[in-house]
């Protein structure tokens, strides 16, 4: 199979879909790999690294799309790429269709085969290709949140870990999935007081068992959320509904109940956000302020640490890329129930129910 790796062109997206080591494995399996020049430079991989792995370097994104049977990316195609996608071409990437009607309609129109990383699910219900980026995003959420709590950027001026004689900051984590647990772990490591909320008691029991005493669990409902937002300094939105739009757990009116300078990091922004006032931002312009509450909602958070993210992503995606290349998408998805769940759009037809539900189709 001919596999293409274009350079990501989303704002400040420096990740690349496969490392040279991943390309080497594809070439070893008798596949042809085309990599757009400079595709890996942001992650620390040069064109020479890819050449030595057996890839062919192409100058433009148009050339990569035109020649490739399967495109492997990190983020969803943006408007400039829509016209490059063709019928029957396989696209394997993060799509998050439920949060973008224009993207969904463009991929339907293209009649391509769209396999979404974020809905590939193993036998235990784990979203195996989303997990590493959720781990990165959860940890980054605390790193970024701590920065924006500083007074020069309109935060509360609170040090999360505190100092002797001064109480540490308080972190509220909404969602006890991968993002939430990683965020809680990072915040606890800094010495912050952490409250983590979820509707799944099994998850809360797990958190209670593995976290230190200064991480407490509480059942998630509107009453409890309203109670905690009044006293917490940093709020992390880590809620995920598989393939669907995230629920609004914090509404606009709740902002007035928060203290000025409170910071919200909505990691769920890729799926529409779990805060009503969330809108996607970029690494160049990451925050905005509403009712004196600082909002951080960068839609590609792991892109800020591209080396770590690229290697972590290749570690989990490569076996599936090889399966698709070796067997073709129909056989691979037919033989592998996990990969089959990644099929979102085929030949203009939406295959994933939650996408139709998101747009009322």
TrEMBL record:
List of catalytic residues: 96 (proton donor/acceptor), 270 (proton donor/acceptor)
Transmembrane segment boundaries: none
InterPro entries, per the entry: Ala_DH, Ala_DH/PNT_CS2, AlaDH/PNT_N, AlaDH/PNT_NAD(H)-bd, NAD(P)-bd_dom_sf
Alanine dehydrogenase/pyridine nucleotide transhydrogenase N-terminal domain residues: 4-137
Domain Alanine dehydrogenase/pyridine nucleotide transhydrogenase NAD(H)-binding: 149-297
Binding site for NAD(+): 134, 198, 203, 220, 239-240, 267-270, 279, 298-301
Endoplasmic reticulum found in the keyword field: no
Gene3D superfamilies the record matches: NAD(P)-binding Rossmann-like Domain
GO terms, molecular function: alanine dehydrogenase activity; nucleotide binding
GO cellular component: plasma membrane
SUPFAM superfamilies xref list: Formate/glycerate dehydrogenase catalytic domain-like, NAD(P)-binding Rossmann-fold domains
Keyword annotations of the record: NAD, Nucleotide-binding, Oxidoreductase
GO term, biological process aspect, one: L-alanine catabolic process
UniProt EC number: 1.4.1.1
Catalytic activity: L-alanine + NAD(+) + H2O = pyruvate + NH4(+) + NADH + H(+)
Any one Pfam family match given in the protein's UniProt record, by short name: AlaDh_PNT_N
Binding site for substrate: 15, 75
PANTHER family: ALANINE DEHYDROGENASE
Family: Belongs to the AlaDH/PNT family.
Protein name per Swiss-Prot or TrEMBL: Alanine dehydrogenase
Organism in which the protein naturally occurs: Nonlabens ponticola
Lineage: Bacteria, Pseudomonadati, Bacteroidota, Flavobacteriia, Flavobacteriales
